[in-house]
Amino acid sequence: MTARSRLTRRDGALRVATAAGLLVDAVIHLDLAGQYQAAAPGGIGQGNLFRIQAAAALLVAGFVLLRGTRAAYLGALVTAGAALAAVVLYRYVDVPPLGPLPAMYEPLWFPSKTATAIAEALATLTSGLALSRAGQSNPS
Question: In terms of C-beta density within 10 A (0-12 exposed, 13-18 middle, 19 or more buried), how is residue 9 classed?
Fold first, then answer.
């Protein structure tokens, strides 16, 4: 096995792991969206934010799988990292409504929330690793 084929396998593993984390994130956000929209049926609402997050995660997951470029991984890092930051922030800090964003404080962990946080952390980690590897090997 050559160094090039090992590089390709590692890159493939990073692509799949990043996309998988984003896909899990998207599925869970879509599943929960309806339950969270009820709190603000006429406004932007947390449910709609969940749907927007899911759409972004799905688009970026596809971009990562199809292209695997630095731009794709940067999109994954931003998408997953922002989602992870939000779930942790709103778990521990009671942030008031900010403009069109509703208050989303939820001081507990439950299985779906934990699973999405883990998936977001995985996608954040693997996209960061892929970005660091891309910077070392070939600029794209």
Answer: exposed
pTM for this one? 0.88
* Distance in angstroms (rounded) separating the CA atoms of residues 28 and 45: 17
Residue type, 72: A
pLDDT in tens, 119-138: 999 999 999 999 998 766 55
CA distances from 5 to 9, 49, 64 (A): 6, 41, 19
DSSP tally for the chain: helices H, then strands E: 4, 0
Question: What is the DSSP track for 81-140?
Answer: HHHHHHHHHHHH--PPPBTTBPP-------HHHHHHHHHHHHHHHHHHHHHHHHHHS---
Are 27 and 17 spatial neighbours (Cβ–Cβ below 8 Å)? no
